[in-house]
Specification:
The chain has helices at 91-106, 114-142, and strands at residues 4-9, 14-27, 30-34, 41-45, 48-54, 59-64, 67-72, 75-80, 83-85. By secondary structure, it is α+β, with helices and mostly antiparallel strands. The protein has a single domain, classed as Sandwich (ATP Synthase, domain 1).
Length: 143
């Protein structure tokens, strides 16, 4: 069974580093799935959800705020602005943060940096999506 050495690195830490079977990532051109021996690729990543299929066939879900991916035939590295495992995200806090950011967008204040607020909304939306996918997958398994 072929695997891919996969790493997600942020400025603060290594979020994930292990051998995996496949991963799906959100690029500017759309979602792509990477399997072992994928053609080499470098791409920009957008805020969204990374899905990783581990060697034990479990799925790991990671929220991503953006970054870059480098794909080599047996190694994939993501350099991320921020990345969090779905299991580590508090869904209620992420949803509250998203709602606060959306509220800022509607306010007519000169000091509001709308591009920064839009980036915050995208990041928090990715966190909410990741934790919901993670939760729903575990609900289905236990029934």
């Amino acid at each position: 069974m072929s695997t891919i050495h996969f790493e997600i690195v942020t400025p603060e830490k290594v979020v994930l580093k292990e051998e995996v079977l496949q991963l799906t990532v959100p690029t500017k051109m759309g979602e792509i799935t990477i399997l072992p021996h994928h053609i080499p690729l470098v791409a920009s990543l957008i805020p969204g959800v990374i899905e990783v299929k581990k060697t034990n066939n479990e799925l790991e879900t990671v929220a991503l705020s953006g970054g870059f991916i480098e794909v080599l035939p047996t190694k994939v590295v993501i350099l991320a602005d921020t990345a969090e495992r779905a299991a580590d995200i508090d869904e209620a806090r992420a949803e509250e943060a998203r709602q606060r950011a959306e509220k800022l967008m509607t306010e007519k204040r000169e000091e509001v940096d709308f591009s920064a607020v839009q980036a915050k909304i995208a990041k928090e939306l990715a966190r909410v999506k990741a934790v919901r996918r993670h939760r729903n997958r575990h609900i289905i398994k236990t029934d």
